[in-house]
């Protein structure tokens, strides 16, 4: 019998994100005082032995090998989707129709049309929901939001973001199947645009508002790769690299770049915002620091400061150690889940909601369309 404040979770997928989310479920009650108590009820994966091993390691009470069975269960309140992108829509819509709360990995969907169907289902069901664009909850990025909202930057002129990796440069790397589904357009939808730029776009929409139009270019450097599932050499359908310009509705200009061919960079997500009074910049490889330059400082001490975001009055930090001691990547998921529990207790969606993630999807679609058409594209308002 569940206690009234239990939130019984069924997680689907036990890969990279299955682990980060499971860690969050276990850590939130230790460091926050959530109104709901997460109960790790079931993990679902197609391989029974792997699902059992995962359940044992993380403390899930049971396993399923078919996500439909998980959704049918009366003892599951929230479904967490940690599977490849081509599975999100079907699972999320079925879960919403069954009245479950839904936490979904990013990108929301394969394209805008599919994303709209997901938003329609989730909003019709009126269930709490969130999409795991976790970088919003890096304390330094949350602090950037606070500084912008306080007006410290003044009018914003430029927004610049990069997400650089180097793990697909070898032509011998196959596409498709476990671990390599990101290189298979049928499973991933797109390449770096949906996988990496979607994160940059979510943060940008949150920090700097709506994007009106975009002009993009994409490239697929390795045109054919062996497909793990068929064993045949097949055309590669994803974008290996993407860069785009955009206009934000607040009048600022955006410049975004992502690639998996930047030798030496593993997961270099950087952003910089230049305003009339001040600028900020942030770097995932040094995620606990926020760089800040304020032109209003006395000229003799004016310069870029590197703010170590560890004090208790900085976003989320009062829940952790003592000033000066930093936290890391896994905490972004812990923060998002803590916020989700607060929202879920009030029956509300938790930003970024499915609708917020649809706005990111609209930009991704416009970027891919622009690159294909070789012209500026308006972003469809959502
Ligand atoms: N928020 C982030 O920063 C972030 C980071 C990585 C991945 N992601 C997203 O998370 C999702 C999963 O990515 P990942 O890196 O964890 O992938 P992964 O390959 O490590 O894990 C995917 C899991 O899904 C399982 N799976 C696939 N099809 C399934 C099905 N039909 N039923 C049940 N299980 C199924 C696989 O067996 C595996 O356990 C993707 O949408 C990805 O874009 C988000």
Unreliable segments (pLDDT under 50, ≥5 consecutive)? Answer: none
CATH topology name of the largest domain, in short, is: Dihydrodipicolinate Reductase, domain 2
Helix proportion: 25-40%
CATH homology superfamily name of the largest domain: Dihydrodipicolinate Reductase, domain 2
Structural class: alpha/beta
Mean of all residue-level pLDDT scores = 97
Question: What gross morphology would you assign?
Answer: globular
CATH architecture identity of the largest domain: 2-Layer Sandwich
Comma- or semicolon-separated keywords:
binds nicotinamide-adenine-dinucleotide, alpha/beta, six-stranded parallel β-sheet, Putative oxidoreductase YdgJ, 10 helices
């Amino acid at each position: 019998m569940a206690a009234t404040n239990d939130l019984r979770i069924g997680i689907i997928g036990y890969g990279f994100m299955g682990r980060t989310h499971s860690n969050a479920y276990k850590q939130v009650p230790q460091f926050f005082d959530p109104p709901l108590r997460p109960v790790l009820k079931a993990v679902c994966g197609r391989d029974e032995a792997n699902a059992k091993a995962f359940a044992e390691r993380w403390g899930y009470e049971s396993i399923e090998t078919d996500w439909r069975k998980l959704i049918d269960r009366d003892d599951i309140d929230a479904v967490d989707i940690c599977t490849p992108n081509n599975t999100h829509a079907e699972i999320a819509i079925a879960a919403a129709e069954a009245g479950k709360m839904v936490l979904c990995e990013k990108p929301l969907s394969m394209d805008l049309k599919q994303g709209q169907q997901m938003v329609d289902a989730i909003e019709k069901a009126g269930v709490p929901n969130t999409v795991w664009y976790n970088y919003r909850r890096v304390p330094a990025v949350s602090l950037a939001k606070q500084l912008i909202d306080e007006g410290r930057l003044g009018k914003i002129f430029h927004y610049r973001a990069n997400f650089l990796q180097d793990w697909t440069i070898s032509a011998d790397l196959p596409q498709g199947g476990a671990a390599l589904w990101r290189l298979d357009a049928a499973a991933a939808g797109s390449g770096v645009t949906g996988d990496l730029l979607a994160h940059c776009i979510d943060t940008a929409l949150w920090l700097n508002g709506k994007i009106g139009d975009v002009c993009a270019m994409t490239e697929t450097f390795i045109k054919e790769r062996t497909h793990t599932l068929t064993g045949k050499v097949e055309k590669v359908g994803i974008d290996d690299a993407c860069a785009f310009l955009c206009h934000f509705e607040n009048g600022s200009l955006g410049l975004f770049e992502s690639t998996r061919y930047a030798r030496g960079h593993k997961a270099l997500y950087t952003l910089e915002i230049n305003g009339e009074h001040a600028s900020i910049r942030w770097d995932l490889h040094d995620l606990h620091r926020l760089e800040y330059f304020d032109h209003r400082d006395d000229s003799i001490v004016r310069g870029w400061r590197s703010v170590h975001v560890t004090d208790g009055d900085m976003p989320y930090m009062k829940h952790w150690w003592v000033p000066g001691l930093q936290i890391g990547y896994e905490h972004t998921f812990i923060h998002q889940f803590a916020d989700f529990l607060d929202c879920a207790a009030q029956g509300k969606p938790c930003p970024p909601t499915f609708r917020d993630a649809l706005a990111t999807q609209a930009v991704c679609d416009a970027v891919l369309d622009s690159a294909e058409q070789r012209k500026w594209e308006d972003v469809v308002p959502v």
